[in-house]
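Session log. Operator J.P. requested a structure for one protein chain; no other inputs attached. Running the standard single-chain path with token output.
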Amino acid sequence: MIVVDSNIIIYVHVQSERTDLALCALRKDPYWVAPLLWQSEFRNVMAGYIRRRILKLEDAKQVMKSALRTMEDREILPPSELVLDLVAASDCSAYDCEYVALARHLDVKLVTSDQKILQNFPEIAIELGAYTSSS
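Structure written below.
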């Protein structure tokens, strides 16, 4: 089991230069979990894609449905107290700290490409490329 942030989920569902790495991570450990927050962050990215005409509305809806299927029954709320402790100990947003808190709570790695998370929490966060190349 690993915690993934919304960007990793997006890489699986929207073709990009990071898609192959994300699919490799999914093959390496197919049991991904995330805080419920991932959905809002994912929708926000879809909103940007729609507004910049990268995706049509109907395509964005299909991408969202696919992502929801991937993460079905894999959403866990992290302990709020731990989220706030992490906020106080870092310069990361509470949103970012939700992912970190969940990984700490479950005692698993957080796979991310977020540089601020990687810098603030190197003991729990691992970069997508490093994760896929590790044994």
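Operator note: The chain is about 60% helix and 10% strand.
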